[in-house]
Each structure stands twice: as structure tokens, then as C-alpha cells.
Amino acid sequence: MSYNLKYKNSIRKYHYFLLLSLIQKRKQISRAQLAKITQMSNTSVGKIVKQLIEDKLVIEVGKLKGVVGKSATLLEINPEGSYVIGINIDLNSAQIAIVTLNGEVIEQRNIVCDMKQKAENVLDQIVYSTLDIINRADPKVVEKIMAIGVSIPGPISWPDGEVLMVPQFHWKNVQVRAYLEQKLDFVVYVDNDVRAVLLAESLFGNMREYGNSVCLYIGSGVGSAVMINGEILRGHRNTLGEIGHITLDPHGAMCDCGRLGCLQTFICSSELEKQMQISIQEIYTDYHKGEYSAIRIIKRARDYLGIAISNIVSMYNPEAILLAGPMIQQFPELIDGVEDVSNEYVWYPLKDSFKIIKPKIGKNSSVIGASALVLNEYLRPTFETFK
């Protein structure tokens, strides 16, 4: 069922996907601008753009304003030229959606998953729901589905798509990619959910203009993802960014990982709930009431978040840091003044060298992020990707 794009096995595929990637990232761009950026000839750009239009991946949308002489025609991605299935697997639930090339969800299904079952049973439930959403979709949409992207918390092998360990799910060494490809007959990409969020914001949201960036994700745990020159960094075992388990206090509270004083013991919701013995919603209610214990623990969380940001800035020197996740979305008070806190701790030459960014994508960020895993692979203009 996989939708195979033109040039997938031709000598011109590199430039084909290079131009497609540039058009996607720039939103609107002319042929002349593409030629200038890529140093390709106008003739070569014109031929490839013609093919992109014939493949219905790119459309012409108007004229470039403010230019002298003949005005240039602008190009943009055709959102209905192709589609991606995004699947996000989270604690006790999964979201499945068909997503356009501009990140719009056109069909969606939310299901409850009992993670006490075997991993195969959960995946079978996801397979059933995915097939159902495909069968109910317009056949013209289904024939244009490129691939499936799956985002899951925890360390994932790349590109094999094996879930190495997710303690919350009781999953270990689960071959998610291989299992879903066999059952669904689509190419499947599986990666960590924080990378998916950063990719989604880089493709469709508030991080489009930042090629050097970091996503710091705070929910029931803490994770991060790093992008340098527009490329996601992965590390030796695809676990680069597991900042939640950096030790900040070797005599601190016990983390779920079994070690003491990990960063996430100071700022994630599950740890704050454990330490206060009430829900995170109750903690914030008490915070707004002026209860001392709630104010103290939220202030401490903000301080350690600022320290984490200062360390990230020193390690990766990003232009921008995206603060995302349920804790940020539901309780924005957590990051009030955090930029000042981080600048207080950061190495002086890097003070004020970065921006704190909030996400643009809302409630569908999980499945849009999963679809972004696919788009990132298809739009990466490297020979290695398309060999």
C-alpha cells in the first residue's frame, strides 16, 4: 500500500527531495530563489519543479511582490499531494491520525490501551484501529499515504524501531517497527516522542527559523531532543537527550530509574506528586492559594529547570530552546521568569545568547509529531537516506 514518490530510484532524486524540502521549510518560494539557494541552474530547477507539480506535491500560489520586472511565481507544498499516518503511544492511550503535508489532521482516532497487557496485544489493538481509520478514509487519500510514523516515550533504537525500555509500559526490547510493518504493509518509522515534538515544531510550528535548537519536554518524566544545522542528533545508541537522568544531587530523592537525585526528581509531575502526596492539579491549586509548601516546591522546580537550561546552553549552544510537554501546557506558571533564572546560572559568554520558545501546535501535537518523523526522513536531502 505504500505510496512511492517519483524519482525514488532515479539519479535526480537528491535534487528532487532537496527542492521539496526547501519549499516545505520556506512555505512560499520562487524558482529563482530555489536556484540561488541551491546553486543549481534555472533550467534544472525548472524541470524538477515541473515534475513536483505533476506529482501533485507542489502547487503555484501567486506572484512574488516587490520585485522589479517580471514577477516570479511562488511555490508551496500541496497539502493534499500526499499524506502520513501518525501514531502516538502514550501511557494508557494511543492517538492515530491521517495528517497532510502541512501538518493538518484530517482523520483521527483515540483509543484506550491497557499497558498491563503484553506489548503484542497493545500493538494489535493499534493495528486494528489503524486499519479501521484507513478503511473509512477516502480511497484517494489512502493511495497517497507515504508511510507511518510512531512516537513513543523512552529510548528507541534507530532506524530499527525497537523499543529498548519503557518502564511505564513494562516494555523491553519490543520490535515495534518490524511488527507494524508486517501487519500494516507500510514503511514505518519509530522514534522517541520528544524528537517528534521538536521535528513537528521545526516543520510546522514556532521553531521553523531555528536550525540549532533543543526541545526540553516536561511531563511525567523529563526528556530532550537536540537539532544542529537542521539535523536531529542521536548519539551512539540513539539516546542523546536523556537529560532527565542527569544526576544533580547524588544524595537527592530516589528516581524511578533506581538512582538518586536525577533532574526529573525536581521538576516532573510524577515526582512532585510523590513528594507532596497530592495530585499535580492540587499542587497548583495550593500554589495559587499561596500555600507555602506548594510555592516552595514550584519555585524549586523552576530553579532546577533554569539550571537544566543553562547546562543545555553550555553543551549545545542553541539559538532557541523549546519548552514543551503537559507540565508546560497545563501549568505555564512553571516557566514564569525561567529565562532570567537560566541566565543567572549560564556561563557568562553565553548569557542572553538563546531564546525560550513555547510550542505553537496544540492538542494534536502528538500525532503531528509522529507524522513529522516520516516527513523528516522523506524531506532530508541526503544520498544516504534514499539509496
From TrEMBL:
The keyword Glycosyltransferase does not apply. Belongs to the ROK (NagC/XylR) family. It comes from Terrilactibacillus laevilacticus. Keywords: Carbohydrate metabolism, Xylose metabolism. This is ROK family protein. It comes from the Bacteria. SUPFAM superfamilies: Actin-like ATPase domain (SSF53067), Winged helix' DNA-binding domain (SSF46785). The lineage of its organism: Bacteria, Bacillati, Bacillota, Bacilli, Bacillales. Transcriptional repressor of xylose-utilizing enzymes.
